[in-house]
């Protein structure tokens, strides 16, 4: 019998399942509102807090984009890339 190697994607998917399950249990508006609050914090808070807020939003969207990438059509992929680029632009204009 040959042992199957576990890919990086499989490891990320496996480790993400508990967090995704917890997110799924939360009220539907929690994630959009939390994202909006973090973006507002990034836009108006003092520099160290702004950087942390933008980093959290970027990391969350990048994580979700990575997990959904194989099953999302091209238009969805472009939208995710546009959101990441927008966060970078917001952060760059803030600093």
What tags apply to this protein structure?
single chain; 95 residues; mainly alpha; 4 helices; globular; DUF6703; transmembrane; membrane; transmembrane helix
What does this structure look like?
This protein has 95 residues and is an all-alpha fold. The protein has a domain at 31-94. The protein is 80% helix and 0% strand. The chain is built from 4 helices and no strands. It has helices spanning 8-25, 30-44, 47-68, 74-94. Helix 2 runs antiparallel to helix 3 and helix 3 (47-68) packs antiparallel against helix 4. The longest helix is centred in the middle third of the chain and has 22 residues, at 47-68. It is globular, with a radius of gyration of 16 Å. The protein starts with 7 loop residues before the first helix and ends with a helix. The model has no long low-confidence stretch (mean pLDDT 94).
